[in-house]
Specification:
Layout lengths: L3 H13 L3 H20 L5 E5 L6 E10 L11 E3 H7 L8 E6 L6 H27 L6 E10 L2 E5 L4 E4 L15 E9 L8 E4 L3 H11 L1 H4 L3 E9 L3 E8 L6 H6 L4 H9 L4 E6 L4 H8 L5 E8 L4 E6 L4 H5 L4 H10 L2 E6 H16 L14 H9 L5 H6 L2 H5 L6 H23 L15 H55 L6 H9 L2 H35 L1
Parallel strand pairs: 2-3, 7-9, 11-12, 14-15
Antiparallel strand pairs: 1-2, 2-4, 5-6, 5-8, 6-7, 8-9, 10-11, 13-14
Length: 552
C-alpha cells in the first residue's frame, strides 16, 4: 500500500496535470540538496523516496576506481580496496553508497526543500501547458472569466490559465467573473512569469469561427470566407464566395431577416459587420469593399507595389474614407492593396496641374495684379494662393471659404483678374519691336511711325465726333423741359377757347325742337365743323411750336 506522502503526490500530479514521477524526482532532489547544505559538503548526493513507507533517504555516492589509478576527484571517487572494506561485494567501476542521517535536518532545510519542490513542480506544469497548447495557435477555445488583473482578463481554459491583454480586448465588451466566452489562442509564451497562454477577443479568427457556427453553408464548404479585416469593437469586413452558382453567399451569411448575422453581432456586443461578395477582379472587389460609399471608378496605379487609385464623387468622399479613415483602412486590409482615394475635383485639379507642368505653363506672382488692394493680397497669400493662374482657377465658392473674403471683395477680385488677362492679351497682340539676329524686319521703322501717326489722327477725329454728339445730347436734355411747358400752355389756351363759345338762345332751341331728328343732326354737324377746324388748327400750331422748341 502506498504511503500517505505518495498519495498526496499523486493528487497533486492529477491537479496540475503532470506525471507523478516528476513530483517524486522533485522531492528527492530537494532532500538531497537540503542534506548536502546541512552537512556542508560538496560530495555528490541523491535522495530516495520509499513509496511503501514514505521514508526519504539521502546518500552520497562514489565511483570505484583501481588502486593503481590516481584519484582525480577524491570527493567523488574511491579506490577498490577502500570500497571493499565498506562493501565486500563491490566491483571496479560500480558505485558505492554512503547514507547520511536526515533526522537532524531542521526548519531551514525543510523550507529549502519546499522551495525546490515548488519550483520543480511549476516548471513541470509550464512544460505540460506548453506541450498542450503550443500546436493549437489560432484555435477558438471555450473559456471562463476567472479574475481581473489590472487591465488584463484572466481566463480559465480548464487545464491552464490564459491571459487576455488590453490590446486584444474589444472596447464594447465587459465580462463578469464566471461568464463563459469564446477566445482565440494567440501564442504560448514560455518566458512569461504569469499565465503563459495568451488569448484574444479581437482576432479575426473569432468572427470566422462564429460564422462557421451560425452559417451551415460555411460549415459544409458551400460558401467560403476569402478574407476578413477587423477592428475590434468598431467594424468588420468579411469577403465571402460561393462554390455553387445557385447559392447567394451574402444572403446565406445574412440569413432570413438578418437572423444569422444578428446573432453574431450580439456575440460581439454590437460590432458592425459588412458582408461583401468576393471577386477575382481587383477593381470590382475594391468597389464592393468600399461600400456603403459609391465609387465612380477604380484604376491600378502601381501593379508592383499593389496600389489602387479610387475616384469618388465629391459628396461620397467622406463616406468612402469613413470615420477616422476606418472604411478605407479596412478595405485596404481586405484587399491587401494600398488605396488612394480622391474626389472628382481633386482629380481634375491634379490632371490640370500635370498638363500645366507638361506644357511648361506660366506662373505669375499674384502681386502682378495691381488692381487688388494690399490687404486682399495678404489674405490670398495667407490662404496659399501665390500665382495669378492659381487665383484664376479657383471657384467663387472656394474663394468665399477664405477668411475675410466677402461678396464685394469677390467681385473686386473677379474684375481685377479679368482686367489683368485683358491687358495681357492686349500686350501679346502688339508685335515685338526687337529684331531677331540674322533676320530682316518685316516692316521698316518709318512705315511703323507713319501707321502710328495715322492711327492717332483717326483716334483724335473719333474722339471729337463723340464729344460733339455728347454735347448735342446734353443740350436736348436741357431744352426738353421748356418745350414741354410751352406745349402744355398751348393746350390750355385751346381748351379755354372751346369753353368761351356762346350758348344758343331760347328761340333757336324751340325752333330746333320742332324740327325732325335728321335735320337736327345735319345742323349739328354743320355747326361743329368750323369749331373742329379751328381747334385742329390751333393744336397743330401748338405741336409745331413744341417741336421747334425741342429741336432747338
Amino acid at each position: 500500500m502506498a504511503s500517505v506522502l505518495y498519495q498526496s503526490i499523486e493528487l497533486l500530479s492529477q491537479e496540475k496535470s503532470i506525471d507523478p514521477a516528476i513530483v517524486v524526482g522533485a522531492v528527492e532532489e530537494a532532500i538531497a540538496l537540503a542534506t548536502r547544505k546541512f552537512y556542508k559538503t560538496q560530495e555528490n548526493m541523491r535522495g530516495e523516496l520509499n513509496k511503501e513507507t514514505g521514508e526519504i533517504l539521502a546518500y552520497i555516492y562514489k565511483t570505484v576506481v583501481a588502486d593503481d589509478d590516481p584519484l582525480e576527484d577524491p570527493l567523488n571517487q574511491i579506490t577498490l580496496t577502500e570500497a571493499k572494506k565498506l562493501a565486500p561485494e563491490v566491483e571496479l567501476g560500480s558505485e558505492i553508497r554512503l547514507y547520511r542521517d536526515t533526522s537532524p535536518l531542521g526548519r531551514i532545510a525543510a523550507q529549502l526543500a519546499k522551495q525546490v519542490i515548488f519550483q520543480k513542480v511549476r516548471e513541470a506544469e509550464r512544460e505540460t501547458v506548453f506541450n498542450e497548447y503550443a500546436h493549437r495557435e489560432k484555435e477558438v477555445l471555450n473559456a471562463t472569466v476567472k479574475r481581473l488583473e489590472g487591465q488584463d482578463v484572466i481566463y480559465d481554459l480548464g487545464k491552464a490559465e490564459a491571459r487576455c491583454p488590453k490590446r486584444e480586448q474589444s472596447r464594447l465588451e465587459q465580462f463578469s467573473i464566471g461568464e463563459r466566452v469564446r477566445v482565440v489562442l494567440l501564442k504560448v509564451d514560455r518566458a512569461a512569469k504569469g499565465p503563459q497562454v495568451v488569448v484574444s477577443r479581437a482576432a479575426p479568427e473569432l468572427v470566422q469561427n462564429l460564422f462557421q457556427s451560425e452559417v451551415p453553408e460555411i460549415y459544409d464548404g458551400t460558401v467560403t470566407i476569402r478574407a476578413i479585416a477587423r477592428e475590434a469593437g468598431e467594424r468588420t469586413k468579411i469577403a465571402v464566395q460561393s462554390r455553387d452558382k445557385d447559392v447567394d453567399p451574402v444572403g446565406a451569411c445574412v440569413g432570413m431577416k438578418g437572423m444569422r448575422v444578428q446573432s453574431i453581432i450580439r456575440e460581439l456586443r454590437g460590432e458592425k459587420i459588412d458582408i461583401i461578395e468576393f471577386s477575382d477582379e481587383i477593381t470590382t472587389f475594391a468597389e464592393k469593399a468600399l461600400q456603403p460609399a459609391k465609387v465612380s471608378r477604380v484604376s491600378i496605379a502601381d501593379l508592383t507595389d499593389k496600389q489602387l487609385e479610387v475616384i469618388v464623387d465629391d459628396t461620397q468622399l467622406s463616406l468612402a474614407i469613413g470615420k477616422k479613415g476606418q472604411n478605407v483602412r479596412l478595405a485596404a486590409k481586405l484587399l491587401g492593396w494600398k488605396i488612394d482615394i480622391k474626389s472628382e475635383e481633386e482629380k481634375r485639379q491634379e490632371v490640370e496641374q500635370q498638363m500645366q507642368d507638361l506644357s511648361g505653363g506660366p506662373s505669375t506672382p499674384i502681386e502682378q495684379v495691381t488692381e487688388l488692394a494690399p490687404s486682399v493680397l495678404q489674405k490670398l497669400v495667407a490662404a496659399g494662393i501665390t500665382t495669378v493662374e492659381g487665383l484664376a482657377d479657383m471657384t467663387p465658392e472656394q474663394l468665399e471659404e477664405i477668411p475675410g473674403i466677402g461678396d464685394k471683395t469677390l467681385e473686386k477680385i473677379s474684375l481685377a483678374v479679368r482686367q489683368y488677362f485683358a491687358q495681357l492679351d492686349a500686350r501679346e497682340a502688339v508685335p515685338a519691336t526687337g529684331e531677331v539676329e540674322g533676320a530682316e524686319p518685316a516692316v521698316s521703322e518709318e512705315e511703323r511711325e507713319a501707321v502710328l501717326e495715322t492711327d492717332q489722327a483717326e483716334a483724335e477725329n473719333d474722339a471729337a465726333v463723340i464729344t460733339e454728339a455728347e454735347n448735342v445730347h446734353a443740350a436736348e436734355e436741357e431744352n426738353l423741359p421748356a418745350a414741354e411747358e410751352d406745349a402744355e400752355e398751348y393746350r390750355n389756351e385751346a381748351e379755354a377757347a372751346v369753353e368761351d363759345i356762346p350758348p344758343a338762345d331760347e328761340a333757336e332751341v324751340e325752333t330746333l325742337e320742332d324740327q325732325p331728328a335728321e335735320a337736327l343732326e345735319q345742323d349739328a354737324q354743320s355747326a361743329e365743323e368750323p369749331l373742329l377746324d379751328e381747334i385742329e388748327t390751333e393744336s397743330a400750331t401748338t405741336d409745331e411750336q413744341a417741336d421747334k422748341g425741342g429741336g432747338a
